[in-house]
Amino acid sequence: MKTKIFLVVIFAVFAVIPSQLFAQTLTTADARLFEPISLNKTAELHFGAMTSPTSDATCVLSTAGARTADAAITLINSTSFPVSAATFSVTGALNATYAITISDATITVSDGAGHSMDIDNLKVKSANVVGDQVAGYNGKLGTGGGTDIFSIGGTLHVNANQTAAAYSATFDVSVAYN
């Protein structure tokens, strides 16, 4: 008899407890696939032609491709040595934001004969983002087809009595979705 009562009590306890020991809900799993982001260079970073100064000086190239220089430098307009901000087109997912990475904070241009100058204070301007950016460069792909254009400008430091020559360097620019 004790065994029957014990089993009835155990059965009664388990009949009541299961709803209190177990809970369940539904959740969703999903993924969003973006089309690959692409980058195309449309213009190089060209400071153009200028004279060598008698004292250290700078030439600033804006993200719009306009240049100004200290009084020690004379800017020369020449079709042989054009002036342009580096410009890139980006395509990808509609309305997506992306990060712009420039390989070096300072780009050293050289004439190949041991003479060099530095370009720094790099700025980026995305067509879909207001204002120039000086750090943490970002862009936004537009609503009209997932495209953006951005440009890069900076400051060229010209040393006093810099050797007259053609100076150049390469640097990497990359983009990735945020």
Account of the 3D structure:
By secondary structure, this protein is mainly beta. The chain has a single domain, classed as Immunoglobulin-like (Sandwich), CATH 2.60.40. Helices cover 11% and strands 39% of the residues. The chain is built from two helices and 14 strands, in the order H-H-E-E-E-E-E-E-E-E-E-E-E-E-E-E. It has helices at 2-16, 18-21; strands at residues 38-43, 46-47, 49-50, 57-61, 67-69, 75-76, 83-84, 86-91, 97-102, 107-110, 116-126, 138-140, 147-158, 173-177. Strands 1, 4, 5, 8, 10, 11 and 13 form a seven-stranded antiparallel sheet that branches. Strands 12-9-14 form a three-stranded antiparallel sheet, with no helix packed on it. Strand 10 and strand 11 (116-126) form a beta hairpin. The chain is elongated, with a radius of gyration of 31 Å.
Topology as H/E string?
Answer: HHEEEEEEEEEEEEEE
Spatial extent as radius of gyration: 31 Å
Structural class: mainly beta
CATH fold assignment: Immunoglobulin-like
Distance between the termini: 72 Å
Strand and helix layout:
Blueprint lengths: L1 H15 L1 H4 L16 E6 L2 E2 L1 E2 L6 E5 L5 E3 L5 E2 L6 E2 L1 E6 L5 E6 L4 E4 L5 E11 L11 E3 L6 E12 L14 E5 L1
Antiparallel strand pairs: 1-8, 2-7, 3-6, 4-5, 4-13, 8-13, 9-12, 9-14, 10-11, 11-13
Give a brief outline of the structure:
With 178 residues, the protein is mainly beta.
Keywords:
178 residues; 14 strands; mainly beta; Immunoglobulin-like; seven-stranded antiparallel β-sheet; three-stranded antiparallel β-sheet
